[in-house]
Amino acid sequence: MKSYSIALIPGDGIGRDVTAAAWSVLETAAKQAGLALAATEFPWSCKFFKETGRMMPEDGVETLRGFDAILLGAVGWPAEVPDSVSLHGLLLPIRKAFVQYANIRPHRLLPGVTGPLRAESFDILCIRENTEGEYSGAGGRVHQGTLDEVAVETSIFTRAGVERILRYGFERARTRRGKLASVTKSNAQKYSMVFWDEITRKLAADYPDVAVTSYHVDALAARMIMAPESLDVVVASNLFGDILTDIGAAIQGGLGYAASANINPDRSAPSMFEPVHGSAPDIAHLGIANPIATIWSGAMMLDHLGETAAASRVMKAVEATTARGIGTTPGKDRTEAITAAVVASLT
């Protein structure tokens, strides 16, 4: 029997509920496929920060290194810990230490889910550069608290970083409908984004079977709303990808369906899988969080581990559940009811 060791980081708020829900689905699917999933749970969270002064222990990254994959719920509790602390104390260090440079977010409507657009037949795969760019953390503040205060935030774009994320996008486009949209703002950002455009054109010669279009980010944002069915694979920088995928979540019905994967493509370290939504402190005690985004992320985890049949089985169970109207209206179904329906659809 194949066995995989999975690090579970439920995190904060509804993260605990949706992680538990996804895990019950994944365990059932694994058992049906003759697999074993071994979970080790870590309490790293804003609560952990308040108790220890750190979002995770100093050796947290090395602790995670030995796992096959990481499943994360949600991190953040702004009323208790600033988001800048929680993000830079847990998620970003993991992504950077494990070179999870490809953030993958699928956007399509599940059966039974009504989106806000007239369009329904879109299937967009957003690929966001995940370790450098605008979220590099380079910069600082001087003369704080004075009228002369200055804040500098420097974006870092390396040839290696831009080329590898674009190549990843080209390769994924080859497995789909053969179209790639490269997103920049090169009319205004004449160094980093012109650099990105130049590398896109250079790499396009290596992929003559992929149709490449370069968009400015504002035009692409409009296209995702006005003509989402025209898009296939979208590749963008860390900041632009972050923003565009929230549009993607909106047009697919909301953050309750928005899954993501932080991928280390060469598999030299574990990849991490998580829903796009936050910890939602306002509903954390109500038991109505939609676990579908986390279950979908879990399916992406199984697929990354090479268990494509089990991953497909999970997604078919999710689709069967939403087709019955379960988990399609925010707040209508309890977390446990949605989970039970997905588990039942597996059997």
TrEMBL record:
A GO molecular function held by the record: tartrate dehydrogenase activity
Keyword Membrane among UniProt keywords: no
Pfam families linked: Iso_dh
Domain Isopropylmalate dehydrogenase-like: 5-342
Record keywords, A-Z: Manganese, Metal-binding, NAD, Oxidoreductase
InterPro entries: ICDH/IPMDH (IPR050501), IsoPropMal-DH-like_dom (IPR024084), TTC_DH (IPR011829)
EC number: 1.1.1.93
Top-rank taxon, per record: Bacteria
Stated family: Belongs to the isocitrate and isopropylmalate dehydrogenases family.
Protein name (database record): Tartrate dehydrogenase
Species, as recorded: Mesorhizobium shangrilense
Taxonomic path: Bacteria, Pseudomonadati, Pseudomonadota, Alphaproteobacteria, Hyphomicrobiales
